[in-house]
Amino acid sequence: MATEPPLEVHLDLLSQPCRAVHILLACTRTPHRVRTVALRKGENRTAEFTKLNPMRRVPVMVDGKFTLTESDAILKYLATKPGVPEHWYPRQPERRARVDEYTAWHHSNTRPHAAKVFILEVLLPAQTGGQVEQERLDGALAQLDATLDRLESMFLRRQPFLCGDDVSVADLLALCELMQPAASGRDVLQGRPQLQRWRSRVQAAVCHAFHQAHAVLLAVRERRRAKL
Ligand SMILES: N[C@@H](CCC(=O)N[C@@H](CS)C(=O)NCC(=O)O)C(=O)O
What we know:
It is a single chain. Helix 1 packs parallel to helix 3, helix 5 packs antiparallel against helix 6 (134-155) and helix 5 runs parallel beside helix 7. Helix content is 56%, strand content 8%. With 228 residues, the protein is an alpha+beta fold. The longest helix has 22 residues, at 134-155. Strands 2-1-3-4 form a four-stranded mixed β-sheet, with helices on one face. It binds glutathione. Glutathione binds next to helix 1 and helix 3. Pfam families: GST_C (PF00043), GST_N_2 (PF13409). It catalyses: RX + glutathione = an S-substituted glutathione + a halide anion + H(+). One of its GO terms (biological process) is glutathione metabolic process.
C-alpha cells in the first residue's frame, strides 16, 4: 500500500506567521516536513515557488494534493485535524468566534503595526545601509502602542489568553508578531506587565517550541549586538 507523503510546510523562520505555524505543528506533534524558503535569498521568487504560491509569500502548506496559503487559514486547518487538542481552535461556536474575532483584527492591527517597527528599525537600514528614520519610527511606535492598549483593554480584559482560558492559534499569531521587533533588541512589551504576564503564559504553554521557532530571530539580535 502506498504511504501518504507527509504534510509539508514552506517556511522562513524569520517570518512571523511562519513561526506561528511552526510552533503549532511542534506543539501538536503533527508529522510534517519543513521546506525552508529563504526570503533574503529571494527563494520565494523562483518559478517553482511561484507555482506553489503566485503571491510569492510564506507560509505555504501542502497536504497531499491540497495547497493552502495564508497563516490564518493554515493554522485553523491544522488545528482542526483529528487528535489536535480543541483549545487551539475550539469547536464550540462562541469560543471559536472569539478566536476568529481576534485573528480578523490581527491582520489589520497587531501585524502591520509590529511589522512596521521591525521594517523601519531593522529591515530598511539593513537593505539600504542608511540610518533609522526616527520620525517614521516614532509614528510606528505610537500606532503599535494603541494596538497594545487594545490587546490589554479588549482581549485580555478578563481572561489569561487572548480568546479565553487556554492558549489558541490567536495567541501564536499575536506573540510571533510582537516578537519581531526583538531583532533590534526592542521589547515592545516593556512597561506593560499585563501583556508580559500573557507572554509568559503563552511561552509556558508552548514551551520548547517557542525557543526553536525564535532561535533564528534572536540570533539576528545577538549579531547586531556584537557589531555595536
Ligand atoms: N497574510 C499572509 C502574509 C504572509 C507574508 O506577508 N509573508 C511574508 C513574510 S512575513 C513574505 O512572504 N514576504 C515575501 C515578499 O513579500 O516578498 C499570511 O498571514 O500568511
